[in-house]
Amino acid sequence: MNEFELIARYFTRPPRSRSVALGVGDDAALVVPTPGSEVAISVDMLVEGRHFVAGADPESLGHKTLAVNLSDLAAMGATPRWALLAGALPEADPAWLAAFAKGFLALADANGVDLVGGDTTRGPRNFCVTIVGEVPAGAALTRGHAKSGDDIWVSGTLGDAALAVAALGGRATPDAHVLAACRERLDRPQPRIALGLALRGIADAAIDISDGLVGDLGHVLQRSHVGARIELGAIPRSAAIAALFAGTERALALQCLLAGGDDYELLFTAPRTAAQQIEAIAAVLQLPLTRIGSIVREPGLAVVDERGARLAELPRSYDHFARP
Questions:
Q1: Which of 62, 86, 223, 313 is the most exposed, having the fewest neighbouring CB atoms within 10 Å of its CB?
Q2: Is residue 323 in some structural domain?
Q3: Are 157 and 102 part of one and the same domain?
Q4: Which pLDDT does position 318 carry in this prediction?
Q5: Domain harbouring 101, CATH code
Q6: Does residue 161 sit in the same domain as residue 288?
Q7: What gap in Å lies between CA 67 and CA 290, rounded to an integer?
Q8: Cβ(294)–Cβ(228) under 8 Å?
Q9: Radius of gyration (Cα) for the chain, nearest Å?
Q10: 170 pLDDT exceeds 60?
Q11: Could you tell me the CA-to-CA distances from 36 to 115, 126, 139, 198, 255 in Å, in that order?
Q12: CB 86 within 8 A of CB 120
């Protein structure tokens, strides 16, 4: 296959909605934004050997390539609309491409996303998605409006994806059942789109946890010019992470829970008076939402353990330019 045959066979489909005036196949796509909406745009790159291992399951990789971008829109409270996909491939393997496209397009369909363009070339395997969504004017969630006295909440549980990475790197030896569950969290993250939409008008600030709780919360604190106090014991975790804390691997447990990354859960702040609304959202979405701390006026981030003692040192979150 040449480049154009590849695009036509695996990534060209009729538009899902009338919002696409012109899709794949021209020099640019033409889309029709909803009147009264602001456009939310984000881009993420996944590079083999850095963000995923060589030989990764292509269907799961297709899912994750789009999921990490959808997670950014979730954190903004935006509705996903359109995506552009660029990728480099060492070869045009039909079976590999069919599986990748299946994972990517299934998640696109589940979230109402039209694939409207992109680019392909031969090279080391990597993928870059530009995702475009919409949010009513003035209603977007951002990192910059957390307020002193806000509660800090997270969705789901944290740390399992990082435990999978540790296992793949030989730094942990979970049993086969635990590893399979952690690999599912790593390879097929679930973007919290419905939660982001439900939090509009309730949350003061939000971010998705992609590089680790400590680092991503730090972005909120920096943009909002506030500090935070987190209760280690309140951070939601799976039985696998809890077992690490109960055993002799507390350092690994702290790294996974506080700084592991790849969770793609939402962290958000909200006034204490919103707690009942947030609990109602959790019930409707059947998604655990947990209060883990509060925003304070004093700058800095304090994490206190089960005895109320402040952790002297916090693990560092993922750095894209750190050596593997």
A1: 313
A2: no
A3: no
A4: 65
A5: 3.30.1330.10
A6: yes
A7: 22
A8: yes
A9: 20
A10: yes
A11: 23, 36, 11, 19, 43
A12: yes
Q: Which SS3 state, helix, strand or coil, does residue 177 take?
A: helix
318 lies in a domain?
Answer: no
C-beta separation of 78 from 134 below 8 A? yes
Tally the C-alpha atoms within 13 A of residue 283's C-alpha that lie toward its C-beta: 6
* pLDDT reading at 320 higher than 70: no
Q: Examine the domain organization and report whether 84 and 180 are in the same domain.
A: no
Q: Answer whether 187's CB lies under 8 Å from 282's CB.
A: no
Place of tokens 């979230």: 111
Closest CA to 301 of 193, 216, 237: 216
Q: CA 131 to CA 81: how far, in whole Å?
A: 8
Q: What CATH number corresponds to the domain at position 157?
A: 3.90.650.10
What whole-number distance in Å separates Cα of residue 104 and Cα of residue 67? 8
Tokens of 225: 């010019």
What's the rounded Cα separation, in Å, for the pair 160 and 253? 10
CA distance 140 to 317: 26
Co-location of 117 and 30 in the same domain: yes
pLDDT band of residue 322 (cuts 50, 70, 90) is: low
CB 261 within 8 A of CB 318: yes
Instruction: Indicate whether 323 pLDDT > 60.
Output: no
- Using an 8 Å Cβ cutoff, are 270 and 151 in contact? yes
Note the Cα 306 to chain centre separation in Å: 28
Q: What is the mean pLDDT of residues 28-39?
A: 93
Domain boundary among 136, 167, 185: 136
Average pLDDT of 294-304?
Answer: 96
pLDDT band at residue 319 under the 50/70/90 scheme: low
Show the tokens assigned to 273. 């008076």
Answer positive or negative: Cα dihedral of 78, 128, 316, 263: positive
20: domain range? 3-136
Residues 28 and 122 in one domain: yes
Is 181 part of a structural domain of the chain? Answer: yes
How many domains is the chain built from? 2
